[in-house]
Amino acid sequence: xxxxxxxxxxxxxxxxxxxxxxxxxxxxxxxxxxxxxxxxxxxxxxxxxxxxxxxxxxxxxxxxxxxxxxxxxxxxxxxxxxxxxxxxxxxxxxxxxxxxxxxxxxxxxxxxxxxxxxxxxxxxxxxxxxxxxxxxxxxxxxxxxxxxxxxxxxxxxxxxxxxxxxxxxxxxxxxxxxxxxxxxxxxxxxxxxxxxxxxxxxxxxxxxxxxx
Length: 212
Ligand SMILES: [Zn+2]
Prior knowledge:
Distance between the termini: 56 Å
Helix content: 25-40%
Low-confidence stretches: none
Bound molecules: zinc ion
Number of strands: 2
Mean pLDDT: 96
Number of helices: 8
Strand content: under 5%
Number of domains: 1
Order of helices and strands: HHHHHHHEEH
Shape: globular
């Protein structure tokens, strides 16, 4: 049966998004203590477990496949691998900073850098999954190619969508048809006042300080 995402998002996505939003507001207000408290509460292990279920080893019941896709790679020629920064930001804004598959609210990757700049302990940032903040890492959004790049997909806006961590990393190089996931372009994105915490970006600038 066709579906919109590998698995429906668990309630911890919304909980983490709310807490991270509060953390962002506290940080902007210069209240590091309360910001840190919200970050600790948003560090929800079930999100890591959920992400591993989807982005970990291949499971027939989740991926509808039993092995990696086999295909002849489409030559790269002059195709850029990823859209530019401004093109990516336009996609996030078009999609309301939500995963177009599971519809979870995402956060921009710059938000993690900003939190970690002020509160490295509470915003745990690492290349090692266990040492990386479970909430922020799972909710961090990225640009996904509907037709994978390796299979000829380009950077036209119609081929690009916002995806949360599990939806992005679970699909590997399979096509949507191969994993029996619907084309999310069939549904209008949900656009409201959610900004993916992009309001934190000015705090990431070197010159920024709370006393300025
Ligand atoms: Zn998702």
